[in-house]
Structures are given as C-alpha cells and as structure tokens.
Design brief:
heterodimer; A: Rossmann fold; 2 domains; five-stranded mixed beta sheet; B: alpha/beta; Gyrase A, domain 2; two-stranded parallel sheet; 7 helices; binds iron/sulfur cluster
C-alpha cells in the first residue's frame, strides 16, 4: 500500500436529508483509511449533508487533494454535480494554490466484482453457487445515471467466471423487475445483493417488499429496517432466498477507494 | 497553521463554546457536553471520537438531524477526549466544516456566495429554483435559517449584490462574541436549495 503523508483524501458521498444511515458507509471507509495512515488527512463531503462539497476544500490543510466519489457508477453526480460544486475543470484542477486530483468512482473499479462475490458467499454459507441464482439489483430509470449499466457490467463479469448457476441483473423500476425474481431464475437457491452505496429505504424496505420477504412498514428508512438482513434464509415461492446488505457497506470498499487513487496516479504517470 | 494547531491555540486562550457545545479542561483530557447540561451529574459518559458522530446524528426525540447546525443537539451525554486532535475530530462530527470554514475566513479565503449565484449554478431538478422570487427568498430564509429553531450559523451572504436578507434580525448576520467559535454560512446550504424548489413548485405554503 502507498503512503501519502503530504496529500489529503476527500471521499464524496451523496448523503441524505431523510436517511440517517446514508452517509454511514462513507464515514466508515474514511475511518478505515485513516487507520491505515495512507494519507496525511482524510475527509468526507456530501451533496446532501455537511461537510458539503462547497465547504470541504476549506477544511483541507494539505496542498495535494485526491477526490474519490463513493458512487456506484459514472453519471450525473460524478460528471456534473461534483465537478461543478468543487469547481473542477477536469481530472487535474489547480484551485487557489492547491492541486485537486479527481479520481474515478469506486463502482467503476474491476474489484467491485470480487466484493459482490464475497458478499454473496458470506450471506449464504455452505450453499453451492452452482445451484444458486445470484441477483445484482440496481435502481434503474429516472436517476439520470449509469447504475443499471454498471450492474449489467458486473453481472457479465461474474457470469464469465462460471461460478454461479445463474447471474442476473434486475431492477426496482425497469425490466427485468426484481419483483419477478422467481420467474427470472431457475436455481433452488437465490442470493440477492443490492447494488447501492448505502443501506436505506431501497434496501430496508422497497426491495424486500418487491421480493415478498417483507410487507410495507411505515418509517423503515432507518436502522429499524436492518432486521430484514438477519432472517436469512427466506423460504418462499418454492426457493431458498438469501438477502444481503447494500454492497457499499462491504469493508473492502476502503481498499477500492485507495485503488482508485493509485489508478489516478498510474494514468497520470 | 493547520486546524489542530489553531484549535489548540483557541483552547489555550480559553475558547470554550461552539454552537450548543461547552468544552471543559479536565484532569483526563477535554470534556464536551451540551451547554444546557452544565452542572448535571447524571450524564452518560462517552470516550471515543466516533461517538460524536452518532451523538450528532439524532436529536432528543431520536429524529435525524440532517442539518448539524440546527439548534437541536441532543442532551444527556458527555464526551471525554484525551487530546486536541480528538477534540478536533469530534467537533468536525458535531459541526462539520465549521472549524475549517472559520479558519479559511481568517486567512481571507472565504468569498461569500450570494443566493442568486447559488441558485444560478443549480442543474437538474434544482434548476427550477432560479425562479424563486426575492419575496419568496426572504420568506424562505426567515423560516429555514432563523436562529430559534432553524439554524445557528451566521449568514455571510446576500440574496443579490443589491439585496441583503432583511427578513431576519441583525444577530443572524453577526458572529457571537465572547470568544465563541463562530458557525459560518458562506453560501446557502443544499437544504435551503431543496426547500426553494418546493416553494417554486408550490409544494409548501409561503410565508
Ligand atoms: S442556508 Fe445557511 S443559515 Fe440557512 S439553514 Fe442553511 S446553513 Fe443554516
């Protein structure tokens, strides 16, 4: 691992004004990187929370700043909002005597597939992957981002490894719909991994309702919704179903953030 | 001077208040608590910087505090920290960016951004906020930013170069004295921008 005592890292998350758990994983990855001592300073910044993108550069003492978006895909936020709010004009921007190096979002990294496999294996211990349909669930539609594309890309990568009986991309709001998981899959075991950066309403409530493992309960957009992850396996529609937390809570994300910094340096070299 | 050194300096000179937090020097380090909890001896003890994040996240009724400078910091806790570096990390959790922004302002690096410029920059679903009228702006700011129940930051910006915010009392625009660490708003936050969108779309009643 590299050491950059004279550089700062800023991890950018979306954050939320409604969901108290939204920024949690981003902070946890920052804590892990601080523990590793890889950077002289580690900060987080958010679109919907503080420190905001408009504040964060004022809080950094170092002159060289790496910015890594903790986002699942390239899209509106990584290409429009973050550069606009931080005042970036490309991968490398000089702002008031500082150099800001804008890295690719975590979701773009090829190691995302390893993390999805790790998560899938850990929630269904002792279950044969060959007899398992693995679903990667994205949002789909309307968000003006490429998360559906990213989910498809991961599915293709994992499928090509030939480990799972089936690997399927499904979405909350576009075809193929996760609600039809039993029609889309053929294996006796089903593992569902939400392809989101944090747990929240989608993973606590929306997807469980679509899967049929929870009924709508008001106010589940908080840690109270986390119970849905502790009751595996679910037996329904003639299958055994395992439901995982959002992939962004995987601790390996901290390393992927560092990898994106290394990839930036390698590309610039 | 970096942030830790500046904070050490401020504490050295007797700085003890930031927002709703009171800081005290103790034998075993620094103690943070809600200023309202002065004199209470039934407070729950916390000792880790990471605790600051969860203490800051929910109010007394366990509702989420999206805006950390809202005057609804929860009560009933005290946080003992060993050194200035951990006090800095805790304050960064309680009042994100507020150490950095004040120091940047002292270095002359803060240029306040007027509301019109903040709204003009918006894209996507927030572009519509450019339609917010001056009167709607005044009313919205009066409601969302007011010190009592809204937000403790001092506003440094105007609506436009010609138009100051005149819907809140003068104390909203002046930093507190008495060696308090100021909480500064050099640009309207995204919560206000999101509220502006609701006003323009007619989803909230004005005034
Ligand atoms: S705009 Fe500034 S003063 Fe108003 S609520 Fe947001 S942070 Fe507070």
């Amino acid at each position: 691992m590299f050491s950059k005592p004279d550089s700062a890292l800023v991890i950018v998350g979306h954050g939320s004004t409604l969901n108290p758990d939204s920024s949690g994983p981003t902070w946890e990855h920052a804590d892990a990187i601080t523990q590793l001592g890889a950077f002289g300073e580690v900060h987080c910044a958010f679109w919907k929370e503080e420190p905001s993108l408009r504040q964060v550069l004022h809080c950094v003492n170092k002159r060289e700043i790496y910015v890594v978006p903790n986002f699942i895909s390239e899209g509106y936020f990584t290409q429009t909002v973050i550069p606009r709010e931080l005042g970036l004009n490309g991968p490398l921007t000089e702002i008031a005597g500082r150099t800001v190096k804008y890295c690719a979002p975590v979701g773009n990294h090829s190691r995302m597939s390893d993390l999805l496999l790790k998560r899938a294996a850990s929630i269904a211990p002792g279950v044969s992957p060959k007899e398992t349909s693995l679903f990667i669930v994205g949002h789909g539609t309307g968000l003006n981002d490429n998360s559906a594309v990213a989910a498809k890309r991961e599915v293709e990568r994992i499928r090509s490894l030939g480990l799972y009986g089936e690997v399927i991309a499904a979405y909350m709001e576009e075809d193929p719909l996760i609600a039809k998981w039993d029609e889309l899959s053929t294996q006796p075991n089903v593992v569902v991994v939400p392809f989101f950066i944090a747990d929240g309403l989608h993973s606590y409530e929306d997807i469980p309702v679509l899967l049929g493992i929870a009924s709508t309960s008001p106010g589940a957009a908080s840690a109270t919704g986390a119970g849905v992850f502790t009751q595996n396996p679910y037996r329904l529609r003639g299958r055994t179903l395992f439901y995982a937390n959002s992939i962004g809570t995987e601790e390996g994300f901290a390393e992927v953030i560092l990898d994106q910094v290394a990839a930036f340096d390698a590309a610039a070299a | 001077m970096d942030t830790n050194a500046a904070l050490a300096n401020w504490l050295e000179k007797g700085g003890r208040h930031i927002g709703q937090i009171a800081i005290a020097k103790k034998d075993d380090g620094w103690e943070l608590r809600h200023a309202d909890d002065a004199g209470r001896d039934d407070l729950q003890l916390y000792t880790k910087t990471a605790d600051a994040r969860s203490l800051a996240n929910l109010d007394d009724a366990s509702a989420y505090r999206a805006l950390k400078t809202a005057p609804n910091l929860r009560h009933g806790w005290r946080l003992i920290l060993p050194d200035v570096a951990s006090v800095r990390n805790a304050l960064d959790a309680f009042y994100p960016a507020m150490l950095g922004v004040h120091l940047a302002r002292e270095r002359g690096e803060i240029v306040p951004v007027n509301l019109r410029d903040t709204l003009a920059r918006q894209t996507g679903m927030y572009r519509i906020t450019q339609k917010l009228t001056d009167a709607q702006s005044q009313a919205l700011i009066a409601k969302s930013c007011r010190l009592d129940g809204g937000c403790l930051k001092t506003i440094l910006w105007r609506i436009s170069p010609e138009l100051p915010v005149n819907s809140l009392p003068a104390e909203k625009f002046t930093t507190p004295g008495g060696g308090e660490w100021p909480l500064l708003c050099h640009e309207a936050c995204n919560i206000l921008v999101a509220e502006a969108r609701k006003v323009v779309k007619g989803e909230v009643k004005e005034g």
